[in-house]
Structure formats: structure tokens, C-alpha cells
Amino acid sequence: MTRRFPLALIIVLIVLATSMSALAAEGDSPSPPGIDQSKVAMDTVWVLVTAVLVMFMQAGFALVETGFTRAKNACNILMKNLMDFSVGSIAYWAVGFGIMFAIGNQFMGTTGWFLAGADNSPASGDAYVGVYNALSWASVPLEAKYFFQLVFCATAATIVAGSMAGRTKFVSYLAYSVVISGFIYPVVGHWIWGGGWLAKLGVLDFAGSTVVHSVGGWLALTGAIVLGPRLGKYHANGRKKTSRAIPGHNIPLAALGVFILWFGWFGFNPGSTMAAVPDIAHIAATTNIAAAAGAIGAMLISWLLFGKPDASMTLNGALAGLVGITAGCAFVSLTSAIIIGFVAGLIVVLAVLFLDRVLHIDDPVGAVAVHAFCGVWGTLAVGLFAQEAFGGAGNGLFFGGGFKQLGIQALAVVSVLVWCLACGFILFYTIKALMGLRVSKEDELKGLDITEHGMEAYSGFQIFTTQ
Amino acid sequence: MTRRFPLALIIVLIVLATSMSALAAEGDSPSPPGIDQSKVAMDTVWVLVTAVLVMFMQAGFALVETGFTRAKNACNILMKNLMDFSVGSIAYWAVGFGIMFAIGNQFMGTTGWFLAGADNSPASGDAYVGVYNALSWASVPLEAKYFFQLVFCATAATIVAGSMAGRTKFVSYLAYSVVISGFIYPVVGHWIWGGGWLAKLGVLDFAGSTVVHSVGGWLALTGAIVLGPRLGKYHANGRKKTSRAIPGHNIPLAALGVFILWFGWFGFNPGSTMAAVPDIAHIAATTNIAAAAGAIGAMLISWLLFGKPDASMTLNGALAGLVGITAGCAFVSLTSAIIIGFVAGLIVVLAVLFLDRVLHIDDPVGAVAVHAFCGVWGTLAVGLFAQEAFGGAGNGLFFGGGFKQLGIQALAVVSVLVWCLACGFILFYTIKALMGLRVSKEDELKGLDITEHGMEAYSGFQIFTTQ
Amino acid sequence: MTRRFPLALIIVLIVLATSMSALAAEGDSPSPPGIDQSKVAMDTVWVLVTAVLVMFMQAGFALVETGFTRAKNACNILMKNLMDFSVGSIAYWAVGFGIMFAIGNQFMGTTGWFLAGADNSPASGDAYVGVYNALSWASVPLEAKYFFQLVFCATAATIVAGSMAGRTKFVSYLAYSVVISGFIYPVVGHWIWGGGWLAKLGVLDFAGSTVVHSVGGWLALTGAIVLGPRLGKYHANGRKKTSRAIPGHNIPLAALGVFILWFGWFGFNPGSTMAAVPDIAHIAATTNIAAAAGAIGAMLISWLLFGKPDASMTLNGALAGLVGITAGCAFVSLTSAIIIGFVAGLIVVLAVLFLDRVLHIDDPVGAVAVHAFCGVWGTLAVGLFAQEAFGGAGNGLFFGGGFKQLGIQALAVVSVLVWCLACGFILFYTIKALMGLRVSKEDELKGLDITEHGMEAYSGFQIFTTQ
Amino acid sequence: MKIIVAYIQPEKLNDVKQALYEAKVFRMSVTNALGCGQQKGYHESYRGVDIEVNLLKKLRMEIAVNEEFVQPTIEAIVQGARTGQIGDGKIFVLPLERCVRIRTGQEGNEAVG
Amino acid sequence: MKIIVAYIQPEKLNDVKQALYEAKVFRMSVTNALGCGQQKGYHESYRGVDIEVNLLKKLRMEIAVNEEFVQPTIEAIVQGARTGQIGDGKIFVLPLERCVRIRTGQEGNEAVG
Amino acid sequence: MKIIVAYIQPEKLNDVKQALYEAKVFRMSVTNALGCGQQKGYHESYRGVDIEVNLLKKLRMEIAVNEEFVQPTIEAIVQGARTGQIGDGKIFVLPLERCVRIRTGQEGNEAVG
Ligand SMILES: Nc1ncnc2c1ncn2[C@@H]1O[C@H](COP(=O)(O)OP(=O)(O)O)[C@@H](O)[C@H]1O
Ligand SMILES: Nc1ncnc2c1ncn2[C@@H]1O[C@H](COP(=O)(O)OP(=O)(O)O)[C@@H](O)[C@H]1O
Ligand SMILES: Nc1ncnc2c1ncn2[C@@H]1O[C@H](COP(=O)(O)OP(=O)(O)O)[C@@H](O)[C@H]1O
After folding, report:
1. Total domains in the fold of chain D
2. Chain D contact partners (≥3 CB pairs within 8 A)
3. What's the pTM?
4. Quick check: D100 and F91 CB within 8 A?
5. Is E39 a residue whose pLDDT tops 90?
6. F28 CA to chain E: closest CA distance, Å?
7. What's the CA gap between B287 and B326, in Å, rounded?
8. Whose CA is nearest to atom 12 of ligand 1?
9. Residue C173: enclosing H or E segment and its boundaries?
10. Other chains touching B, judged by 3 or more CB pairs under 8 Å
11. Which of A76, C6, C383, C462 could covalently link to C409 via disulfide, CB atoms 3.0 to 4.6 Å apart?
């Protein structure tokens, strides 16, 4: 029981947060005069409905990650997904939201902890008075803003579970989870969406190809590197390492997960307007067609490369298209969306192969390929395909806008990359030093379900556990 | 075939209902002048969207119950969940809705059968003329009210399937289902939401910790008691009974079920405004954070008690948090929501252990612990944590409101407890006498899938059926 | 690799489409004066939310079809469902939407390719100027119309996967998919919803019992006939053929699929108003109660016929009720909805038996019975049960409206039947001739997962593959 | 040394294990099996088509024992598994020539126990 | 008495059962197995990485018979399972010393049948 | 001819196969099994109730060999499966009287290999 101590940390954190905030003056904001009640109501409905769709993406991630890994680790992965959302909900409320959107400096917000800062939402624009002024443009109540942003934060956090599947200590994962939801992610969010230095430069990332997906993806990369590959994943053959397949145990669940993610993405992208404006139709259409093109792209390239259309790659391809269009969904045409999605579908397959065969980094579900690589592509694609006619954000390179926007996008990509790798390595090495990051060899062989949670996912089913 | 007779009952009921109501004058309500069409439209959209989310919770319950029980009973449980919603839809339309919301006495409504009572919805407030005046505050069409209330009724009904899993005769379950949807639940609903005696006293149960969850939970308890435990669940060891674990067969499905329920709860709680008002943001936020805290609470206490974080308990914990916050979601602060959820997470684990180890009542999925115990906690919590600033319903004990509200809440808890236990025992013993409640020992051993439905859930899979 | 050539076709199609449309003038439609922005916003929210629900039905179909067939073909079916939606999204954008809704002749639209035709949506009614005038009544942006109609198209397309499960070549299925989404379905859509000859006659098919479900169902029938039954499905016993059961491998997944479809249908039917009007409440209520009645009907008749309530039939029954009410959901009373749904539940069981035992057509998931037979019933039922009071579309036979509407409905049924059978046979025989439609006997025995995609759905699970 | 192979009803496993423990037989291996014997199968049906299931779920136990344990083992199995109804199962005794404990390399009677 | 153990292709089970019925052999037990023999495996791939599957799915049948049934049983299995292609499987015959019917306690030839 | 039956730890399968290949033994059949031996089980718990899992997951290998291969096969299995820890498993050798290759009808030594 001694190694359970880190738990104390979490409890303390919760208790502290709770009591501190209880002291803070909470209460509902009496609506200031001059608010268009009908618009507020409609926007709130829209924000909540889309937030709920995004929340449901947690189920999608859980299933994709479970299905693409082995049966003996299924409970563990599900617990991770459940708990990162749970601790994230609290951490983001306590500090994350303040860091991301409250008044502070170029680097991070420094006020508004526990959602208790001054705020007269749903008053918006010039009528807004409060500390969360980076979101003053949205005319919805503060808690709608919090909830909507929380589910985005949770998305970034949960991505990492995938690349670290099958070998990470549960308690260490919890610790990591608090830090990303409460700090690493909100800081990037502040830079780009919260009025920070990248926002000032004019970076365009509509729904978070970089803010959400790249952040998750790069942290997933550092996690996978620090952990090392699963036992038996690479086989040293003289000087040469060869990669071995460790097939996922439940492709139907994974496929359902992808459908759920696709479904939830209609909250992710169109919801990012945070208002019920007609643009949401365009955004929904680009989102959908990019996903379709991504699936087609990945299917075709896997067919060419492996001789057969690979189901797990095609499923990744749909997600790749979705990640790719996330930054530009409001700024590009449908045709451009097809191209962006299709290219993302190609990228994801090549990236999976590159990470696995060349770099020998073991990412069981392709989290890095999908979220980091396609997130980068999506962010850059805005600089290439943006059109003034959509969203009014100026033209990209291919539509006569020159290299300027592309350069800004590239800067954002690189800064976030550097920030995430730095934070990720520091974080994971610290956790490794303090409480250990990886389970023992024996536990890994037996499976984390039995060793970390004392139970089996499929009791009664006869399953070969030779790997 | 002789033992199939009860079916005749159902058929007759349907035919009767159908023909009677066909005679009643149905037709659409010409909208009276002076209605704010835009508000009606927006409220109707909100009510329907949230009702649909709640309807989807049926899938969540089905999966949780299936996943937490054995493979040999999977089809049976799924059928139960499907059919209680189906027969409930009809029973609630025929009589339930009238009992719950139509004009009558303090105890129950006595008019408005078959949704055919006078009604000029979406006219609301003073402009409303009709028999369903307990819902006159909602400015949506009558059928939106019916559909929204129906999915709540179905939630209460389906909870019971969980505690009775693995040993109940299918036909008896159907019979039970008609009675709860058509009578037991609507009566409680009338008391608290339909202008009955508890409503007059000022009970606060925003979305139904008591009305929906406790009712389901207490009936689940009576069902489990009357049935007795599954074979092999308890082992008499001299004078002492020891409990044996009967592990669930598909934890990933159960986890998906919990995610779906969490998702659907954003219909359950915020939808209970039955109007697109800004408050829904606060409700969504309290709902979410209580669920998160519930999962954390259950995880921590199971970790302490069993040495490992138990996945099935943690999943129950999230549900516990949701049930706990259901009564107070509109009336308490975010901080209070965390406390309410966290405590619910503790309660559910202790309640599971108490029922299993002390009382030796076999509730395979924890339905009683989650819905009855946490429903009680949630209802009382309103009396403790309510704040005038939220929802305007007065202050609870901890915020200077004294014991009054707490007393009223306790009265509601006790009355509903008594009503449900009485009805439950009468109902289940009657069914037992008339048609038998439990399958034969042999059928139970073979599994209900084969014996009650003549099929298997996982054809081809090799499954150990040693229990 | 030589047999992969058809792929080239798809690539060429995409590239062509993409480049052509890139030339077309895309851009956002400056909103003309005199539009009610608030109504546009609200309608757009409604259309998108419901479209997203319908999109999620893809997951439902995927699960139902996967669960009702064998484990060895699971990846293949999932890939089919994913890819028909993906290629359909592109094909419908390129040509389907134009054929269905743009200006043309009585038979099909002949303009508006690539969504690039003139259009000033969300202007509606007389204010509308553009080529998609069959949808000028809806006051939402063009892309909302496209996206909403796309998900309907995808529903029709994906139905066919079910009846062809377990023996169809993947590449041939892709080819089929392009043609139905780009041509066969849109033509029928034009006839009934796009201002074509049947629309002129006054056919009533509110959300597509015929347009969507019958089209999918009849094509599924032709596919099943051209393919022939799965190996081992029928056993020639002298002159007599007997049918053998090939049980589905995962009933819980199938049941989840049905719940998802039921959930999604609340987008399908109420969304077909394409506007946030109060009628959506009535539509949601009829939809739900018909599904309930369908499940009850199928359960009772399977109980009578087989002595036990069959789970897979009951699940089909719920879908049957939903298909049955789709045409009339806005035009009939709740009581009529119960009757329509109940009868659909009976029909589906009898139709499954008829197809299997009498005609010996192998439809693994009952796609023809559910979608074709109940689609026909639903379309005719409008002519029987319609009431002036609902939706204002006149009275059916049972309510004093005479035989006229029924005759028109029957004409629609027959025309669509003829069109689909003709197109289906031509299409499938052409594919058979050009690239082969069915996999080899050996591949079928081994399972399509390994032979077509080189992977397994349940790696590690021990599964009897004796069939 | 003998190898005893027994087919029993799955739900009897616990009783048989109990009986074996009492007979001081602690080692065994168990596999899932489908069996077809005197016991008639049952009828499932799927979508209205009958399935005659005549391969019923059984457990196969394999127990290597020294000569003196043969009789007690058989008796224990019979005691634990007998219900008196068709389908109770069978016990087969096969000669065992060698037995090796992988961990230690021990052979023979010593290794079996 | 002998125990006949046969490994066959899974999809041949029905044919073998049919052939055994005709040879009046009604009792048998079947298990899932993975086999590795002359038959080369096939290649799966997962996410671009090849998997050489050389443990192929087989069925293991175990049939206890009296001496006079040994030859007919072998012939029936061969007839039902043979396709002439590699992978058809093998039949092994082992000596069976005792056989006990759990239900009745009957032993020997009587119990086997 | 002998039949060698070995129970090994599931995760050792690859190593054993490797060792067998080196000993020129290419044929084998593998089944899933649950084993109960000297190795104590472990404790799972489900919803707060302890489960003593003393039937642990094992693999059962069955290899028919000619006499001269018996010793090499045993040695190969031991080499591949031994970790020195309790639970490594056991090897049993049974007499094999006949062996038939279904495809060709070949019998005896020829058929085994
Ligand atoms: N001759 C046999 N060969 C192999 N397995 C057998 C044989 N006879 C019986 N079994 C196994 O024993 C099980 C029980 O046999 P059964 O004849 O049904 O019961 P009983 O012995 O009580 O009449 C069968 O299902 C089968 O697995
Ligand atoms: N020596 C053996 N020991 C154990 N099992 C064997 C042996 N030889 C063959 N088998 C089993 O028989 C199956 C078929 O053998 P294989 O050599 O592929 O076919 P064939 O006998 O037609 O050449 C194998 O997959 C394996 O399960
Ligand atoms: N007498 C036996 N009969 C059948 N199986 C046995 C016997 N002894 C051991 N086994 C099998 O071998 C496995 C390993 O045996 P165990 O005693 O745990 O290891 P060790 O031999 O290293 O002490 C067991 O789990 C069981 O499957």
C-alpha cells in the first residue's frame, strides 16, 4: 500500500480546491440589461448540445483505444479514459480555465481560479465585464463556456492514453492527467485562443488542430518514448530491429469508437462558433467530407502498400481527416476540405509506418500519427487553403494570400511542438523518478487488468494470451 | 404454451387502449393567439433534443446491465431493456401520463387518459386551458411533454432489470413493467411533480433523484428480495453465509454503457427545465462535475478498501454522482456539486458492500446502491446545499436555511420509500403467485438466453460456463 | 494486384470531381436582405442536430449488421459501412444532390453539380433564387440542406450491406456504393421530394419510407439474389431445400445498434421538417410509439410462431415500426402510429420467414424484410391512416378520405419497386461481369476478414469457426 | 502412472474440484469442450430457423496421477459430478509412460504429484 | 478400448459427424485447437506489420471406442474430412485402459458405447 | 510412436516453438487450458468480493513423434519453457499406437512426421 501514496496528493488537491472555492463568492450572475435573451438562449442551447457531443467523444476514444489493444489491458484503458475526464473536470475548473482564458500575461492567465472570477456573462462584447475577457465574444453563461472548453481539454488529455496503452502504471497516469488538464494544455490554449502571443500574431486554428490535437499528440509521443515499447513489440535481429504486430482484440468496438468520434466531431467543429450562426452548416459539411476523404485516402494507400485495404488504418484515416480539417473547417471550401482530408489520410498511414518501422516508437493506437502529424498538417493547411469568402479570415497561399499566414501557422506549430515536448519529457521523467511510470515486466505480461485492477474484462471468454 | 397466457393480457390491453383512444377526439391543437412562436419553437427543440438524449440512456442501461452480468444471460437482459421501454411507451401514454400530470386529487391524476384530455399547449401559464395543468408552465406542445416525461418513466422502469438480472422469468418481467410505467411511478410523479401532496409541501427534486431514481432503486430492491440471490452467489458456511463473486462478462460494454448514461444525463438534468433558459448551463456544469467527483470518490474508496482501484465500482461511482446531483443540479453551486458527487461515490461502494455482505441481497449490477441509496442522498443533499442564488429555491442547512427544507426532503424520501416497498412487494408476490417470478434452477444454470429465448448471445465464441 | 484496377476508377472520379469543382465559383452566399436571422439560426441548429443524429445511424447499421453475422466477417462489414458513407459523401456532393434537388426535368435534376449551382439560401420561399428550388421552402444554408440530405442518402446506401454480408467482394461493394449514392437513390428522391413526377401527383412520404428505406430494401433484395445464399445456408434435401440457421455472433452489439438506430430516428423523422416548428413534437411521439409497437408486435408473433420470444426478431421489429412510421409520422395520430408500428412488427417476422423459407433468398440481417416490406407498408399506411388534422395533408381511407391517396401511394410504391429492381439487377450483373461480385468459396469459408482485409476482428479470442 | 481424462458438466467443476481436494489430488488441467453423447441436445432457433444443438458444452479435465491415486481420483470425480441424469459424463484412463516437471527436470512419480 | 484423437479442419466438422453417424459412432468430444503442420500458414497484417500465422485453427476430436469400432471410426473420419489438400489433418490412436460412465458407474466396453 | 502432451505458460509459446523448430519438430497442436498445480493462483476481486483464481491460464501442446524424437522434443520444450519458477508446467508422454494422415491415408512413422 505504500506505493499508493500519490493518491494522497489528489485528495489533498481536491479538498483544497473545494474549500478554497467554497470561500469564494459564488452565485448566479444577475443578467445585465440590454442582453438579447433569445440569442443567449439559442446560443446556450447550441453550445451545450455541441459540448455534450464532444463529451461523448470520450466514449469514442475509450473504445478506439480498447479495441486496438489487447484484451488483457481493456479494463485499464477504460479506467484511464474515465478517470482522465474525471480528474480533468476538476483540475480544469480549479485552475485550467483561468490559465487559459482569464486576464494574465501573454503566456498564461493568472486570475479567475475556480471559475470564481468576476464575470457578467452572458453579456458579451463591449458589455462584458469580468476577468475571462478572452471569451467575451461569446454570449452564453460562464458555465457554458467552462463546460464547452472543458470537453476540449479532456480530448487533448485522453489522446495520450492511447500511445501509452498496455504498460503504464495507473497511478502515474492519473498524476500526468492532472498536469495536462490543469497546466500544459491551458497554456497552449491561452497562447492561441486566450489572447496570448500567438493569438496576437493572428494564428488561425478554428477548433483546435493544434491547440487540442497536436498538444495531445506530442504529449503522446513523449509518453511513448519515455515508456519504451511494449514487451515483444520489437525484436532485435542482430543489429536490426524488426517490428512485430500486436493485433487489437476487438475491431468492432474500435470501429464503433470511430463512428462515435465522427459523430462527436460535429460538436467539436461546428460548436466552436459558440453561437448559433448559419456558418455552422458550412463547418459541418467540411468536417464530414474531410473525414470521408481521409478514410478514402488511408484505405487507398494501405491497399497500395499492403495489398489489402487495412481496416484499422482506414479507421485511423477517418480520424486523420477530422483532425486535419479541425483548424480550417470554417475557412476553407468543400473542395479544399476534400483535399485536406485526403492528404491527412495518406499522412496518417505513412506516419504510423514511419514511427513504427523507422523510429521504433510503439504507439499502439496511432495516437501520434493521427493527432500530432495530422494536427500539424491541418494547421498548415489553413495557410494554404484559406479563402476570404469563408469565415472572412483572409486567403491562404493557394488562393493568392501569399506566405504570410502559412508562416504564422508554421510558427504556431513549432512553438507548440517545442512546448509540448519540453513539458512532456520533464513531466514523464519526473513521474518516472518519483513514482515510476511503467509496470513491471511480469505485470505487463499478465496484463494490467489483473495486476492493476484485479479483474478481467471478459470473464468466462476463452482468450489466447500468448503475447 | 399454456404458461404463455399472460401475454393475452398484454394484447388485450393494447387493443383496448387503442380502440378506446381511437374514439377519443384526437387532433392538433390550433395555436391560440398570443403565443411567442419563437420561444415555443426553441423550447420544443430543447425539450426534444434532451428527451432524445434521455431515451438513449436506455442503451446505456442495457449495456451496463449486460456487461456486469454473465454471457449466458445477455440476450435476456437486452430484451428486457428493449421491452420495458416498449411496453412502457404504451402504458404511459394510455394511463401513466394522466395519473402523473392530469387533474385529479392529491394522490393521483384521474383524467387525461390516452393523451386525449383537453389541452391547448403550447399555451402556457395563465393562457393554458386543459387537464394537464401540472405542466402548464412549459410552453411546448403536449406531445413534447408526453415524450419527455415518458423517457423519464422508462428510466425508472428499466433500473429494476439490473437487480433482477439472471433469474427472472421474461413474461413476469413484462407484467411488472406495465404496472410500474402505468401506475407505481406515475403516482410518485404526481405527488412531487404533478401538483400532489408532496409538491404542495415544497419538496425540491429538480430532475428526479427521488421521483425517478429512488423509485427505480426501491423497486429493484423488492424485486431482488422476492427473487432471492442467483444460484451460487452465497455459500452457506456453517451458520455464516459468504458471498461469492460472479464477475461480469464484458466490462468494455459496461463502460460504454456508463459513458452513454453520462452523455444522456445532459438531457436528463438540463432538459428538466423544459425550456431553453440560460440556467441549463449551470445545470450541465454541476451534472458533469458531480459525475466526475463520484467516479473519483468510488475509485479512491475502492482503492483503500480492496487495495486496487476497482473498475466496476468506479463506473458505478460516476453513475452515483449523477444520481446524487439529479435532485439538486439547479439549486447548488459547483463546489457543492463536487461534494455531493464525491459523497455519492463513497456511498455507492459502501452500499454495494452492505447489501452484498451484510444483507446478502443479490443485486448483480448495483442498481439499488446506485439509484436508491444515492437517490436518497441526492434528495437530502438539496436540503443541505441549496443556495438561494441558484434557481431561487431557498437556502439549505449549510447556507443558513435551517432544517425546514431538509425535513421536507426527508419526508419525501420516506414516503416514496414506503410507497415503493409496499407496491413492490405486493406486485412481485402477486406475480409470483399468478405466473411465477423465477425461472427453474436448471434454466438458470443453462442461462436465460437459451431457455427463455432459445438463442445465444455470442454464437461461436468459446466461453467457460462453469458458473 | 491486377484485380485492384477498379480502384483506379474511384481515384479518377475523385480527382476529376475535385478539380472540376475547384474551378466552379465557390464562396459564401451573402445573405440577402429580409431574412429572419433568428429563424434561420434556429432552423439551422435543428437541421444540423438532427442530421448528426441521422449520421450516427451509420454506427447503428454497422453494429446491427456486424452483430447478426459471423465473427469471421466482422471487419469486412464494418469497413463496408464506413466506406459507403465515405464514398457516398463525395458522390452525393458531386452529382447526387444535383440530380435530386436541382432544376431539371420530371425524371431527374440536371444542374447544380458539386453544390456549385446558383443559390441564395437561406433565403426561402419566393425570396429564393437558385437552382435547388425543390428545397427552396427550407430556410437554412445550402450546405445544411446538402448535409441533411446526404445522411439520408447514406442510410439508403448502407442498408444494402446487410443483405450482401459475408460473401461480397469489397471492391465490388465500393463500386456499387458510388452508383447508388450518386444516381439510383437521387433519382427516386427527385421523383418524390425533388419536384419530379410523383411529387406532382401528390405522393406523401414524409421522411422516406419509400424514398430511403424501400430503395435500400429493394436494392438489398437484388443484391442478395444476384449473389446467391451464403455457403451452407440452404441444404438441398432431395427436391426440397431446407434452411439452416447461421446465428449472429454478437447480439449485444446488434442490440446496441438497434438502440442507436432508434435514437437516430429522432433525427430522421422530426428533422425532416427542416425547421424548428412545433410539429416536431408530434412527429417524435409517433415515431417512438410506432417503434415500441413494432417491437411488441414482432415479439408476440415470434412467441406464437416459435414458442419463445426471439430477440433478433424483436430487435428487427423495433426497426420495422420505425420504417413503417417514417412516411406517415407527421400525418397520423398516435393511435394510428401504434397500429402502423404493430402491423410492421408482424410484417417483418412474416417477411423474414417468407424470404428465407419460401423464396430461399439469404438476407443475413433481414434488410429486405425491414426496409423494403415495411417501407411499402408505411407508404401505403399513409393512404389509410392520414388525418387532415395532422400536417394538413388530407384524410386517408380510414378517415373518410377515400381511395385516392391510397392509389397514389401504391403508384409510388410500384414505380420505385420497378426502378430499383431494374437498376439493381443491371448494376449487380454489370459488376459481376466486370469485376466479379462474390468472393471465392475458399475465401468465404475462411472469412472475409482474413481474405479481404488480412486481419481478424477478435484477435486472441477462441472462436469456433465450424461454419 | 496414468492420465485420467474426464468429461463433466461445466457447472459441476467446483464440486469436482472440492471432491478432488478431499482426495488429496491438487493438480489438474481443464479445457472447454463440446460433447455429444447419450444426452440429447436442445433446440435453439435463430430468426425462425431451428438449430439442433447436439454438441453440448462440457469440461474436459486431465489429471496425471500415480497408480495408487487412480481409484481415489475416479471416485472423487464420480462423487463430485454425478447427478444421475444423462449427460453426467465419462472418465477415461490412459497409460502414462513418462512425466517431466519442466521447472526442475524431475521425472516420474515425483513429477506427477 | 482405444481413444481416437483426430485433428480436422473446422469447417469439416459437420461432414465428419455425418460420416460417424453412418458408422454408428454417436459419442464424441470436440475441442478448439491451433495446429501447425505441413500446411503453411497465411499472412495477416496489422497496421502495416506482417503477421505470419502458422498456428491454424483446427478442431480436435476425441472418441473412445471399442476395438471393433476403431477401423470404422478411422475410415469415417477420413471420409468426412479428406479434401486431398494439405491441412486435412491427422488421426492418432491411443490405448485406453479404463472407462467409467459417471452417471451409472458402469465400466469398460459398456461404458464406452 | 509417442504422444507428448505439455502444459506450458502461455507467454512461453513462441520460445517453445522456436526451440522445437531447432530440434526439427515442426508439427504440433495447441489448445487453451486452465491449470491448477503447485503454483498458487492470484486474487482477483469483483465489486469487493474476492475471487481466488486457482485455475490459471496455460497452454496445452500435443505433439506426436517417432521414438527417436521423444528425447529431443522433451529437451526442446524444457529449454523453451523453463523459467525456474513455479508454474513452468509439465510434460507427459503417452504411447501412440497408430497414426493416420487423413489427406493420403499414410500410416505410422511416415504419417507422424
Ligand atoms: N465414447 C466417447 N468418446 C468421447 N467422449 C465421450 C464418449 N462418450 C461420452 N463422451 C463425453 O461425455 C459426455 C457425456 O456423455 P453422455 O453419453 O451424454 O452422458 P452419460 O454418460 O451420462 O450417458 C459427452 O457429451 C461427451 O463429451
Ligand atoms: N505430429 C503431430 N503432432 C500433433 N499434431 C499434429 C501432428 N501432425 C499434424 N498435426 C495436426 O494436424 C493438422 C494438420 O496437419 P498438416 O501437416 O497441416 O496436414 P497434412 O497432414 O494434410 O499434411 C495440424 O495443423 C496439426 O494440428
Ligand atoms: N498431475 C497433473 N495432471 C494434470 N496437469 C498437471 C499436473 N501437474 C501439473 N499440471 C499442469 O501443469 C501446470 C504447472 O504445474 P505447477 O505445479 O504449477 O508447476 P511446477 O510443475 O513448476 O511446480 C499446471 O497448471 C497444470 O496445468
Report:
1. 1
2. B, C, E, F
3. 0.94
4. yes
5. no
6. 5
7. 7
8. D89
9. helix C170-179
10. A, C, D, F
11. C383
